[in-house]
Amino acid sequence: MQKFGLIGFPLGHSISAFIHKAGFESLGINASYELLETDPEVLVDRVKFLKRENYSGFNVTIPLKLPITLFINEVDKYADIAGAVNTVKINADKTLSGYNTDASGFKKAIPKDIDLKGANVALLGTGGASRAAVLALSECGVSEIGVYTRNIPNAMDYLAYMRRKFPEITFTAYQIDQVRDLSRYQMLVNTTPIGMQGRSADMTPVEENVLKTMPENSTVYDVIYNPKKTILLKTAEKLGLRTINGLDMLIYQAISAQEIWFGRTPDFNAMKIAALENL
């Protein structure tokens, strides 16, 4: 039996094991998938454990998508551009190959009738998911991204990196707790954990009085998938805005991960049913 897992912290909200196991079954592959809670302080020991116990690969989530890059021997172009890794393949010689499937998952989850060419996007957060979102948004042709962060001085390296990688996009930084007007944006993307089950489900990164400044037909995209509807998405729906949650993104990135591990494509519907049954 091949062994796979998810590292990050906290993982109590995660349904990744159910999704991946459904994918394994759809491919007829005998494999296990475990949730392995890992603090950044013990990441070195966790990587040693995964190699020693002969895992074939693993996924990476908050807050390890950037720190894990220190252990990677080679990365794909998406991980290189995003500067973050969410999927790892452990090779026969115990070297690690890192990939970023968040970007493709993020993009595939956007309905085809939403045209972002030339659009302005408000992006909340500067972590690994944020970097993947920028990569996906660049492929969608956006022209400007307003980055909202808790600490602008700490975000300067992030902004410099993004401006260097995506010169065709205008990046501007704002203090997230000072957001007052979103009228210039066609999409708002939340990549922070605010609103996540088990962490801050009773909170929202943007209050209703600010969200209502968005134009009609705008879209609010929250990469959180548990709960299915965060307070942010519920408020957006109440205001008549289009909404996207993180569930399809999660499934698409899991599909891409299994394509990396096995060279085959698992069944989307089987994986989505497993996800919905366990939310």
What does the model show?
The chain has 10 helices and 12 strands. The radius of gyration is 18 Å and the shape is globular. It folds into 2 domains: 2-101 and 248-277, 3-Layer(aba) Sandwich (Rossmann fold); 110-245, 3-Layer(aba) Sandwich (Rossmann fold). The model has no long low-confidence stretch (mean pLDDT 96). Helix 4 (102-108) packs across helix 9. It has helices at residues 16-27, 43-52, 77-82, 102-108, 128-140, 156-165, 208-211, 231-238, 247-262, 268-277; strands at 2-8, 31-37, 57-60, 74-75, 87-90, 96-99, 120-124, 144-149, 170-175, 187-190, 219-222, 242-244. The chain is 34% helix and 20% strand. The strands form 2 sheets. A 6-stranded mixed sheet has the order 2-1-3-5-6-4, with helices on both faces. It has a 6-stranded parallel sheet with strand order 9-8-7-10-11-12, sandwiched between helices. The protein is α/β, with parallel strands linked by helices and 279 residues long.
The fraction of residues in strands falls at 15-25%
How large is the count of helical segments? 10
Would you tell me the overall average pLDDT?
96
CATH class of the largest domain: Alpha Beta
What key attributes describe this structure?
12 strands; 10 helices; oxidoreductase; Rossmann fold; 279 residues; NADP binding; Shikimate_DH-bd_N; alpha/beta; 6-stranded mixed sheet; 34% helix; aromatic amino acid biosynthesis
